[in-house]
Each structure stands twice: as C-alpha cells, then as structure tokens.
Amino acid sequence: MIPFSAKDKNTENISHLVRELENAAHYVLEKRQSEIIATPQNLLYLVDHCFPIKGKGTVITGTILRGNLHVNDTVYIPNLQLERKIKSMQMFKQSVETATRGDRVGILVTQFDSKLLERGIICTKGTVPSVTCGVVLVNKIPFFKLPIKSGAKFHVTIGHNT
Q: Is 24 exposed, middle or buried (0-12, 13-18, 19+ CB in 10 A)?
C-alpha cells in the first residue's frame, strides 16, 4: 500500500507516488521473471485462429513459442481466465501426441466458445502476468491529428490479443 493524498496538489506527492509505483512494478516484474527463468518449460503458445467443429469441440491454431504440449495437458487462456484440457492435436493434418517449441499445431479443446478467442495467448497457468491498470508514459504518434484531452479514454493493446 502506498500512502497518497489526492487533495494535496503538491507535485512532490505525485512524484513520490510515481516513484513508488515504478518500484513496485519493477519488483513484481523481477520476481515474475525469476520464476519464469526457474521453470523454462512453461508453455507459451501464440494463437492465430480459433474455430468450432460440430460434434468435436473447438480447434485453436497457433505456434508454440516456449515449452511443450501433450494430448491431455491442461492449458490456460489468461485473458479469459479459463483452463481447458487438450483432447487431440494435429500438425499439417497429421495427428500428434506431442508438440514442442517452434511447432505450428492445432489443438482441440471441448466446452469452449470459439467466438471468445480469435488471437491471443495460451500458456501454463501463472506464466503470463496480467494487469488491469497501470501508470504509463505515452507519446502521441504524428498520424493522430486530434488533440488529446484530459480524461480521454483510449484502447491500448499490449502483446498479441486483439
């Protein structure tokens, strides 16, 4: 917890708050990075497409960036906070039991609505940190001609989710 008063318009308070938030963010990122390094086999799978197959389930296609996949593994979809079990896998129309880093593979999962995921990430639970808010410094790109007003809301995408 960081003590802060919004009533006091003292810029030192705001600077202190920003410094403390930066320190907290660095601490969390360093801790998270050390956990990921300690377990190099954590799955990271980049999803590029998702579609239903009637009577079978949902096929999720993508590329394994890190780790391995096996039939019957449980995978985690962080932006939906869902876990699903892999029913089967295919690479280039051939069924496989295992896939590893660099492989393009389609995985079949059940009880999953394909409309919920088009692009994104699938991983081992706890591998990909997520945040719901943050303090960031942004620069306006020259192509955005409109003025930026205080309190305006913008959609920001970080990573692969769309």
A: exposed
Note whether 96 and 105 are within 8 A (CB).
Answer: yes
Cα–Cα distance, 90 to 108 (Å, whole number): 9
pLDDT of residue 107: 97
User: What amino acid occupies position 41?
Assistant: Q
| pLDDT tens-digit series, residues 113-141 | 999 998 889 999 888 777 667 777 777 78
- Could you give the C-alpha distances from 86 to 13, 56, 157, in angstroms and in order? 50, 12, 28
What percent of the chain is helix, strand and coil (3-state, nearest 5)? 20, 35, 50
